[in-house]
Structures are given as C-alpha cells and as structure tokens.
C-alpha cells in the first residue's frame, strides 16, 4: 500500500474515492461506448487550457496556472515531469493495484460556452483519451471518472451545464494508477490528454448505437438501439436508412410495434434495417470499396431526431481449417505494428499524421496493421477503411511486469472485459477490422477468457487473437485465440509446426522481424517460406516507428509542438537529436530499444522498407525462359490494370537500355509469358532485366508514377575476367608493407570489425567480438617480398582469440594496382562481423557510382529489394543515420565502383566478384564511440570497406539471428580487387 497523505480535498467524492488505486472501478458516470460518430457538428474543445501539475492527486489545487495544449501530454510541454522510457519494468516499485505516493496529476480547466441553441438538448462531453485516470468536474460538481487510456470517455452533462451560459470544465488526469499496471506497454510513459476533447448535443431521443453487419454477397443488416434521455421512449418513433442514396427496408421479422414481442421495451428501442446490394463491390485491402450509410431516427411526425453516417464495406472474414479467409480468399498479412507516436507531441497524432503513416505503409507494400497495443484514434480506422488495410484491433491491456498475477486477479476482471468490450463497441462497423486482439504480453488467465467470452457472443463475425493464449501450444483448441500469433518465433519452428500435421489454426506472427537499428535481416527468407507453406499467412513487423523524441541538446528538453522543420530526412537539425531511453535523465530506462521501427522519427523510411516493398510486389518476374519472361500477378483481388511498367536492361559495361512494358491482363494468381523486350547485345557482359512497376493512375495513396516494385531477373552471367597485363611498373609500399598511393590516406588493411548494430550488441555477438579484441587488431608485418611489378606482404593481425594471417599481393596492372588478399581465421574466431579490406581516401571524392545492388543500403540477408543496376549516390547520402550510430550504408553485390570529385578525378575499384562494399565518412571506431548521431564528426575523405564476407544483420536484438549461410566462418577467405585512378 502507498501511504500517501489523505488529501485536503476530502469533500470531493471523486478524490475521496481514490479511484487510482481501485482496479474494480473502471468508470463512474461514463456513458456506454457505441459506434455513433459524433465528431461532425460537435463543439471542439481542443486548444490551450489552464493547467497546473500537482505532486499527488489529492494535493490542493490553487497554485498558479500555466497553460497546456489539448490534446497533448504535459511531459512534452515544459513541465519538470519528463518522458521516461521503459519496456517491461514498471516505472515504480509498487505492486498492483498500487501506485506511488508521488503521482503527478494534471489539472486542466477551461470555460466552455454552451451554445444557446442547445437548450433542451442532451449535452455530452467526450474526452478522446487521457492517461491514466480521468476525473471530470463541471463548475466544481463531479461528472464522472474513466480509465482505459486509449479510448474516449463520454459524460452526460445535461444536468450540469446550461445552454447559453458558460461553465467551467475541469479534467483532472492522474498519471499513475492501478490501470498503469495493465498499460505497461513498451513505449514512453507520459501523462495527459492525448486525443481531442469535444462537446456535442443530441435530441433527448437519440441513436444509442448502430451495428452494421455485411457480407460479401451484398447483404446488409443495420441494428439500431434507441434511447430517450427522459427515460420512456415516445410513441411512434421509427428509423429509416439509405445506402448510397437507396432506401433500406425495415426488417419484417422484427416488429417493434408488436407489444407481444418480448424484445420490445419501453425504454430501449431496437430497430433493424436490411437490404441486399446487387452486384456489390466488395471491400478488401486492395480495392477498399466503401458505401455511404445514413441512418435516421424519426419522431412520430416524421421529423429527424438523430442521424448517424458512416462508410461501410461488404466483406466476410472467416477461419476455415488453418486458413484465415477474407471474402473466401487466403490473404497474406503483410503487417506492421503501429503505436501512437509523434516526435513533437509524444503521443498525439493528427489526422494528417495518421494519413501520412498509412500512405507510407501502402507505398511500401504493407496491407495490415496491428494497433499495438491499444485501440487507435477513431480516424485511424476510417483511414484504414478508405486506404485499404486489414486491422488487428488490440485492446489496451498489457500487464507485462506483473502479467502472471494480474491475468487471474479478480480485481482486474472488470477492467479486462471493459477494455475489450469498449473497443469492440466502438470499432465493430469498420470493414478494415478483421481480427480482435485481447491485448499484449499479459500471460493468460481467467480474465482473458472472460473478455473473449463477451467478445465471441457480441461479435461472432470476426476471429479473436491473443498471443499469450497460444504461446504454449500453437495447436491448442478451445482457448482464447483463433489464430496462432507468436512473437519472434523462429522461422524454422513455424515451418515445422505447419508441416507437423498438428496445426489447427492459421499462423500469423503478431510480431516478427524486429526493426531496431540496422536490422530486418532474413525478411525475404520469411516470405519465401510464408508464400510456399500452407498454414503460414504472414505477420506484423515490429514496428513502424523509431520513437525518437526531438530534443534540444543544450537543455535536454523535448522541443514539443513548435519543432516542425527541425528535422529532415531522418536527421535532427544541428543542436537537436532524437532522444531515446535515458536521454531525459531517467534513472531507469531501456535505452535505444525504443528505436526499433522501419521509419525514422520523422517517418523517413529506413532501407528495410524497400526490402519489404519488393517482397510484397504485386507483379513479379517468375522466370526467364527461352520464349520470354514469365510474369505473375501476386495479388488476391486485383488485376494489373492499375500498374504501368518499364523495362530496363542493365549491362555491366555501363549501358542501361529502356523500353516500355505492356503488362498482361492477369487475374490474381495467374501467370503469362511476355516476349523478351530487348535483343540482348552480344557484348556488354553481365546483364540484368528489371521491370520498373509504377502506378498507372492516381491511387488514393500514391500519385501516378509512384514506384510499386522493381522485380528483376539476370539474363546473362558475368564472363570470367581476362588475365591482367602486368606492365613494367613498380608498386610502392612503406616499411610496414603498406601500399603508398596518391589517392589513399590510409592503406588497405585487414578489417574483422564493424560498428556493432543493435542486433550485434543485444544478440551477444559484439560483446564476444570485443572480448576477442577484434576492434583493436594489432598488425605486425612478417615479411615483405618484392619482385618486379609485385609486392607480397605477409602480416599477422593479433587479437585475444588468436592470430589472423593475412597475405596481400600487390601487382602493378594497366592503369593501377591489383590487390589479391587472403586471410586465415583461426577456429576460435567462429563468428565475426566481416573479413575484408579497409582503406581511406583523400578528400573531395564526393560521389559513389557503382554497378551492383542499390541504390539503397543492402546487406547479405537484406538484399532482395535492392536491384542490380548502375547507381550513383553522393557519399554523404550513402550513410543511414540510425539513432544509435552503428554499421550502416553498406551496399551488397557490388561489382565495380568509382569515387569521384566534381572534376571527374578519383578512383575506381573493380572487384573479383560481387562483394559487400561500404563507403562512409566514418570509421567503424567513430561510430562505435558515440551514442547519438549528432555527436558524429564526418571525415573529409572516404572510409572504404571491401568485404570478402560480411555477416548478415538478422534480428537478434529481439528474435532470431541471421541464417547460417550469412555467418562469417573461420578458415581461409580470399578476395581481390583492382584499384585505378580515374
Ligand atoms: C514484444 C512486445 O510485445 C513489444 O511491445 C515490444 O516490446 C517488442 O517485444 C520488442 O521491441 S515483447 C518481447 C519481450 C518479446
């Protein structure tokens, strides 16, 4: 128990009740949740409110007022209560249901002028979201209490306010409570009001709820619940409706005037409307067809008392065997986990921000969202309906730190059922919502079963999922999940489960491919398995955002709402940085684990997004056969007519030929051969054919011409390189056997180290590499042998785990130097980051051009989405500014490259075979030495890595590591390259 002093406001019943430590109290005076949208016609109460922050909920109000913006968290608005990032651990030691004595409490107050024309109407206050306990007073009188931080709370103020007169509305928000223990999500802790506040009025006779049921056969059923604020319903009310202007019919079976029918009551009106739409345009994520539904509640004289408008879609969801079907189709779930996040507000996301999130996701091939780990703003679902996303709607329940105790704690039973039920009551009419989720990481107990029971009865039209219920046995039936939705389960285990013959439920990872830092290795392996293994249907990448809060470096404060323009392209402006755990002086925090999204804090896509886009390609090159190119339509519902194409032929000799592409008319799942668009030139070497696919017209999420995917196929392999002529020239090395070259400021040396990625660190590899001393190899030259036109250097690189023998043969060739290298790794070094050469160039070489994979960053296990071609990127832009600096900017499969100055001088490197190449302004040691991007000082020259082998990225910061084929193993590695001046 906390022993906080009993407050000096004993007369206030809301305070006296101490609801912040009463889990049984989920609300008081709060109206039932419903699906009637009241946003239009409402009086918005967003803006600046009087504000004061109390040290405890029962401390006296009366100090000085400042202002706070609503919606907004006070932790981002200049108070001394700053954001804190913790993953699993609670921010206070008190056991559930207790909260700490020191409990910041925000008091928001403002006068509200209730419109005079609202006289006689029912007046309702809606608070969009407040964390974690909301107490409402109007003119000093208690109006209500609510918990459940990510859903709106509504209070009937009719008896408390007067139309045409001002009232003072006070919203008291208590930061810590019993509810915090079930809102222990992996994100920043804040306090405040995070979604809009509004006041609206209805007739006393009003639509209390509207429930829409549709099917892909065009049938529509609309169930209306009608109430009157006065109690008994007036005689003669009725409901009418229309769909896209066509009238709906009253359900004949349900006669509400028949008093014999026991369903007809005096105070709860129920009415049902129906229709069947001929030739219905069904809703799915590819073609999200919507219809406008209007429902009107009439008084006996025909006048309209209330209206509800919504956009609805016709679709079915069902589970058949181990398949999740949408409109009868086994869809693939290309999902992402999405939190409410914004770098300037912390938690509040505007309509435009939500739209931008979804547009970005659409452009990168995502078709599904899990609302991790709480329901989103109502607008998010409107946008998902409109733009086309399958939504797993998740209730606001995560009791991570005390999961086991809470799952069966009857004091929390109410809260579990309340949170699930309120989400369902609000979101049930959205076609985008195809699955309900009972929450996240809360073990599994009776409280879940209770919530699932309510849900299955109330909405039998959608499956239910809960990761915790299936955790122990993916095949178990009869529990609270219809879907096996593991988190981070290794791919092999999932495939084995699907092949075991024991699978009874569709397997869709609720979280996979942890996107922390430079990550998402093996994504393509996952999708190759998903698409070829019945029983696997996809998953949700963890996660969309890097939750970096924009922070001023000098005073450590969040910048807040005024910071627009203080970042660009993933990077904070000078003097600013993206704050992660610990940056606000938190004693307890979980560091950069909060920066694990596929987009930067400003929504700039990370390179992993391009990988995903290609994996999700709607049209693909299946193969190249003599008769031509076989194309396939990999969508579930749509033809190819919305796409346009252009062929590109990239030849190793530098040429790129283009030709318009005519995409065949293919239904989903169909393939067709098209003729090879080019006569392949006899010469030109290795040849790659790319189909650049763009939107043919404007899509709601992309203007015409937006790239959708770039599938490609190799038409011709590289020919063996001709033997190099050795002219009569010498190679210059210094006493240490290091190459002396006018374009190099540091000679090529052996590198076995990369600046550890988050996966390297948290997966335990980097600590091992450090123990081995790979970050500080000591080079000792053993022998330098000179012959005409050639120098052979034997060196030993010593580290704690042994000695790596390195041989470099430097040969003068036409126009330059050929470098042939080998490195012999002892058995002890059984998993290193890389084996390769590193050198540094003179300043001024600012442009990299290469033939290989690109143009964006790629690594051995994340290279599916980087097509082979001729690419050119300024050196400064090769680097990816991951929040915690780490290995970045690598390019996979590079065949040759140049680094040049504006006057076209510089150097070229031709590699013996496609290699991983990294060109950067930073040494690995520069990146390793700092914690934030703003601390880096770029070097004038280029740091160049050419790798014989480079370790895959994997996802070991939270999940599986890379595959065995992408590990760098002991033994002898050989590689060679030719350096020339341009
Ligand atoms: C899992 C959580 O569900 C998610 O919120 C996030 O923390 C993610 O991991 C990692 O970033 S839980 C994990 C302990 C398996």
Automatic annotation (TrEMBL):
Keyword Hydrolase: yes
Gene3D superfamilies: 2.70.98.10, Galactose-binding domain-like, Glycosidases, Immunoglobulins
GO molecular function, one term: carbohydrate binding
Keywords: Glycosidase, Hydrolase
GO cellular component: beta-galactosidase complex
Pfam families the UniProt entry points to: Bgal_small_N, Glyco_hydro_2, Glyco_hydro_2_C, Glyco_hydro_2_N, LacZ_4
Annotated organism of origin: Streptomyces griseorubiginosus
The UniProt record lists the keyword Hydrolase: yes
Official protein name in the record: Beta-galactosidase
UniProt signal peptide: none
Top-level division of the source organism's lineage: Bacteria
């Amino acid at each position: 128990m906390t022993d906080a002093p009993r407050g000096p406001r004993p007369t206030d019943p809301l305070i006296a009740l101490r609801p912040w430590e009463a889990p049984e109290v989920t609300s008081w005076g709060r109206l039932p949740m419903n699906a009637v949208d009241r946003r239009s016609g409402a009086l918005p109460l967003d803006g600046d409110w009087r504000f004061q922050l109390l040290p405890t909920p029962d401390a006296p109000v009366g100090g000085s007022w400042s202002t706070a913006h609503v919606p907004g968290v006070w932790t981002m608005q200049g108070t001394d209560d700053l954001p804190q990032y913790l993953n699993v651990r609670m921010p206070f030691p008190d056991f559930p249901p207790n909260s700490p004595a020191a409990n910041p409490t925000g008091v928001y107050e403002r006068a509200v002028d209730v419109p005079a024309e609202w006289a006689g109407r029912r007046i309702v206050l809606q608070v969009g979201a407040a964390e974690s306990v909301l107490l409402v007073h109007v003119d000093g009188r208690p109006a209500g209490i609510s918990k459940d931080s990510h859903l709106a709370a509504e209070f009937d103020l009719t008896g408390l306010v007067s139309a045409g007169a001002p009232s003072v509305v006070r919203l008291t928000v208590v930061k810590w409570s019993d509810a915090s223990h079930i809102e222990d999500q992996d994100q920043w802790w804040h306090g405040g009001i995070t979604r809009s506040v509004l006041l609206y009025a209805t007739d006393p006779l009003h639509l209390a709820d509207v429930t829409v049921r549709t099917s892909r056969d065009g049938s529509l059923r609309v169930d209306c619940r009608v109430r009157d604020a006065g109690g008994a319903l007036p005689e003669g009310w009725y409901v009418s409706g229309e769909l896209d202007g066509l009238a709906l019919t009253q359900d004949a079976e349900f006669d509400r005037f028949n008093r014999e029918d026991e369903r007809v009551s005096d105070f709860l009106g129920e009415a049902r409307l129906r229709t069947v739409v001929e030739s219905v345009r069904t809703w799915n994520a590819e073609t999200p067809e919507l219809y406008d539904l209007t429902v009107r509640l009439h008084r006996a004289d025909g006048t309209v008392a209330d209206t509800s408008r919504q956009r609805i879609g016709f679709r079915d969801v069902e589970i058949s065997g181990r398949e999740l079907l949408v409109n009868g189709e086994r869809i693939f779930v290309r999902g992402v986990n999405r939190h409410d996040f914004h770098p300037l507000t912390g938690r509040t996301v505007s309509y435009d921000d939500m739209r931008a999130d979804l547009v970005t996701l659409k452009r990168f091939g995502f078709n599904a969202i899990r609302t991790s780990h709480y329901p989103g703003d109502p607008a998010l679902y409107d946008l998902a309906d409109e733009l086309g996303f399958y939504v797993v709607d998740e209730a606001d329940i995560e009791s991570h730190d005390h999961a086991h105790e809470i799952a069966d704690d009857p004091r929390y039973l109410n809260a579990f059922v309340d949170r699930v039920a309120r989400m369902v009551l609000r979101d049930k009419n959205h076609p985008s919502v195809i699955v309900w989720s009972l929450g996240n990481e809360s073990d599994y107990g009776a409280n879940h079963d209770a919530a699932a029971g309510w849900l299955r009865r109330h909405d039998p039209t959608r499956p239910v999922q809960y990761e915790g219920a299936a955790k122990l046995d993916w095949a178990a039936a009869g529990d609270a999940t219809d879907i096996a939705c593991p988190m981070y389960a290794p791919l092999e285990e999932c495939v084995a489960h699907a092949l075991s013959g024991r699978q009874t439920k569709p397997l869709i990872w609720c979280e996979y491919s942890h996107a922390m830092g430079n990550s998402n290795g093996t994504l393509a392996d996952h999708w190759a398995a998903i698409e070829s293994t019945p029983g696997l249907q996809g998953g949700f990448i963890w996660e969309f955002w890097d939750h970096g809060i924009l922070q001023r470096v000098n005073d450590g404060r969040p910048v807040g709402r005024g910071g627009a323009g203080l970042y660009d392209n993933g990077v904070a402006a000078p003097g600013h940085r993206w704050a992660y755990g610990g940056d606000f002086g938190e004693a307890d925090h979980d560091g950069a684990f909060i920066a694990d999204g596929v987009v930067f804090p400003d929504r700039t896509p990370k390179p992993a997004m391009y990988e995903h886009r290609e994996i999700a390609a709607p049209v693909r090159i299946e193969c190249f056969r003599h008769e031509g190119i076989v194309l396939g339509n990999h969508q579930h519902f749509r033809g190819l007519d919305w796409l346009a194409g252009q062929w590109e032929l990239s030849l190793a000799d530098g040429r790129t030929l283009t030709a318009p592409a005519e995409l065949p008319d293919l239904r989903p799942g169909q393939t067709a051969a098209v003729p090879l668009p080019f006569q392949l030139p006899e010469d030109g070497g290795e040849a790659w054919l790319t189909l650049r696919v763009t939107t043919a017209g404007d899509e709601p999420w992309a203007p015409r011409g937006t790239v959708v995917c770039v599938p490609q196929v190799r038409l011709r392999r590289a020919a063996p390189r001709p033997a190099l002529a050795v002219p009569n020239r010498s190679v210059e090395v210094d006493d240490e056997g290091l190459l002396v070259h006018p374009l190099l400021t540091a000679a090529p040396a052996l590198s076995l180290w990369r600046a550890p990625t988050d996966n390297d660190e948290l997966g335990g590899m980097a600590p091992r590499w450090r123990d081995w001393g790979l970050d500080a190899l000591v080079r000792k030259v053993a022998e330098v042998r000179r012959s005409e036109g050639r120098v052979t250097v034997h060196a030993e690189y010593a580290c704690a785990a042994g000695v790596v023998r390195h041989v470099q043969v430097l040969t003068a060739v036409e126009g330059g130097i050929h470098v042939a290298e080998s490195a012999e790794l002892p058995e002890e070094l059984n998993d290193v980051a890389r084996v390769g050469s590193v050198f540094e160039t003179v300043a001024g070489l600012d442009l990299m051009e290469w033939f290989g994979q690109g143009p964006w960053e790629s690594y051995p296990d994340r290279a599916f989405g980087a097509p082979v071609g001729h690419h050119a990127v300024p050196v400064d832009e090769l680097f990816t500014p991951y929040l915690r600096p780490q290995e970045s900017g690598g390019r996979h499969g590079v065949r040759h490259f140049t680094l040049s100055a504006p006057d076209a001088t510089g150097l070229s490197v031709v590699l013996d075979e496609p290699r991983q190449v990294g060109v950067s302004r930073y040494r690995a040691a520069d990146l390793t030495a700092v914690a934030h991007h703003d601390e880096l000082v770029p070097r004038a020259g280029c740091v160049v890595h050419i790798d014989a082998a480079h370790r895959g990225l994997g996802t070991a910061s939270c999940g599986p590591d890379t595959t065995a084929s992408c590990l760098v193993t002991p033994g002898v590695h050989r590689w060679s390259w030719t350096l020339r001046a341009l």
